């Protein structure tokens, strides 16, 4: 039973990602994200993050 996290973690991440994508597409979140995925920094990992990608100054002038 100790290994259950190992076997279920990836499936949970996939289900959570699909759920957020569905909510985003239907406009049922308080914001609309343009990117979704994992985040790493040094030894830290967040399995699922969603957010907006800021436009560059070139994109803003178009």
From TrEMBL:
One protein family per Pfam: DUF234
Chain ranges of the DUF234 domain: 3-50
Name used for this protein in its record: DUF234 domain-containing protein
């Amino acid at each position: 039973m100790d290994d259950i996290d190992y076997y279920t973690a990836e499936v949970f991440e996939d289900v959570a990602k699909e759920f957020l994508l569905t909510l985003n597409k239907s406009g049922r979140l308080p914001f609309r994200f343009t990117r979704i995925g994992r985040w790493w920094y040094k030894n830290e990992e967040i399995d699922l993050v969603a957010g907006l990608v800021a436009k560059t100054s070139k994109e803003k002038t178009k």
